[in-house]
Records
---
Amino acid sequence: MKKVIAIYPGSFDPLTNGHLDLIERGSKIFDELIVAILRNPEKDPLFSLGERREMLESMTERWDNVQVDTFEGLMVDYAVKVKATAVLRGIRAISDYEYELQMALMNRKLEPRLETVFMMPAEAYSYLSSRLVREIAQLGGSIKGLVPESVEQRLRAKLDPAIKFQPTTKTRGRKK
Ligand code: PNS
């Protein structure tokens, strides 16, 4: 039977519990899900690509059909390269819809064989975004429950260099 490979592209700066919720949902409906972190040299991210990859790898270890990778250039080109036939995107609120619709239709124009699949995260995460997490953490607010504990530790260590980040679990090498 044909295996359905999907990619879940994004910046993941940083990974939030909303992303993880979506990854879990995606892992249930696709045979293989590749979380693809955008390598964008123009952006100045809070976490380096390596840090984002490490966080995602350690938090997705529990799902055997989930892999983490990075890409640059057009998302549709990357999807073709890894033989994905679907793109997973999360829709939190109506406000996401316009941008996501535009992107999905443009991607369809570029690569008609690729389908965009929208999924909704749990309501508890409907107001959550990486941008707000960064802003709250930078201003000293609590981000408990919004990101995994290890990401919270890394954020604190990044924003207050006096705190040293202590990884609690070892990340193992993952299949590509
Ligand atoms: O985390 P984000 O910012 O919601 O992710 C946006 C992302 C990475 C999915 C989007 O910017 C993207 O696909 N970028 C790659 C370049 C590309 O293909 N651009 C054309 C989009 S129609």
---
Amino acid sequence: MLDRADNSFVLPPEIDRRRTFAIISHPDAGKTTLTEKFLLYGGAIQMAGQVRAKGEARRTRSDFMQMEKDRGISVSASAMSFEFKDFWFNLVDTPGHSDFSEDTYRTLTAVDAAVMVIDGAKGVESQTRKLFEVCRLRDMPILTFCNKMDRESRETFDIIDEIQENLAIDVCPASWPIGVGREFLGCYDLLNDRLELMDRADRNVIAESVEINGLDDPKLAEHVPADLLEKFLEEVEMARELLPEFDHQAFLDGTLTPIWFGSAINSFGVQELMEGIGKFGPKPQVCPSDVRPISPDESKVSGFVFKVQANMDPKHRDRIAFVRLCAGHFKRGMKLTHVRSKKVMAIASPMLFLASDRELAEEAWAGDIIGIPNHGQLRIGDALTEGEILRFAGIPSFAPELLQSVRATDPMKAKHLDKALTQFAEEGAAKLFKPMIGAGWIVGVVGALQFEVLASRIELEYGIPVRFEQTQFTSARWLTGPKENVDKFIDGNKGHMATDHDGDPVYMTRLQWDIDRVERDFPELNLTDVKTVMV
Ligand code: G4P
């Protein structure tokens, strides 16, 4: 979505101060804890523990499903907005489990930057690497937070080397840790020449900060024991020789990441990271569309749906479409054109997500994420504008890796199952295929856990117990080409054909050999594993 080459536009102050980002990490690295501390510093919650209700709820309140809590995974993404100093932060929560990578991908299309959290003892873990690769596809700027420095962790240089080598990105230290594990004292803020000391006694207060006049300042010795100071000074000298300096453009281009060291649970290093997000940005970026790049300072409002979530509140059967505003100043009650249907929608109850609460959004600006309640009109990828017919660069939909048929254990409920499945397909929670021959549905997902999540949601939200079963197919590919050829192919291969929930034809098979054969024998047709959802 981003065109970082063109940063020349001057933004209205309200847009200029917006920072829209996501946190990416491997489970357990500390994403929830860091989110909680962001909200704490942002004044969105009063005390740590509100997001993570101790003992009872393991994850942030954005994870509303019991199953997520039970399993300790975060399946659904949501947004949180809060102010920090002069900035307005929109933090979009990414699902933490690798099975939900498509959802994560979509989430990342709605942000301008990512904070990568790594565990100081574990370094770059598998899930971090995967998510990083997704960010890299879009050259997204990344800020790194090395967490859990209060525990025994790796040598600072080892951590930095691992990131550089493993992720092929330059790393510039924004702070440098002094001591490690039990001896961890705090960090030296290399960008602001400050010594930040950690207060282990109170995890919710802002730690002490000492103004220092450079590394020769004798005040350093007053706070840091001689042996630690010596090691620290040596390391910083080496770091300055060996590691790149901070280069703002390289950061914006996604080729260099600044790294902060800290301990989220001790609220340590979090503020400096937030200041970094504020200072380095990026501010809301240009969104490409099929007509022209949409600059955030355009006066007309436009945005796109990157996520649809149904039944957020079991008491209200509502659907929330999460919209990233790309341009303009949105006001409640505005009439926006839903480009796909060409219908005008009055946006009467837009929502902002403040920590765990939703609030009516009286206004919002480019960069913001708003929630629009609707009855199913809004789908992932849909554009909303003040009348202009344009499409934002599509959000891709990936072919599922696992296929299973689904049926209601109570045949009387089969009809309601159609409705539930269609809704989950529109929400992007699964791919839904209707075979051209025979009855029933085939559901496609990326990871096996999604079947369980779906079964549980269908039962919970619709009261329909279901069973997933093996099918004869293992692969699905979208079929495109000249209409005449497509129709002819469908006629001759009905047993392999299905339609997805948009009605587009899909070829299904068990054998890669079949796919190769179709590609060889029908050169005018395409079988693709990615479909770009266009509006
Ligand atoms: P996640 O969302 O990335 O999965 O991680 P989460 O924040 O849930 O943190 C995972 C575990 O790591 C939690 O411990 C959390 O308290 C701990 N943790 C987070 N930040 C730090 C830190 O800076 N230092 C240390 N030492 N630990 C940290 P838990 O035992 O799983 O949960 P809980 O009993 O603390 O709630």
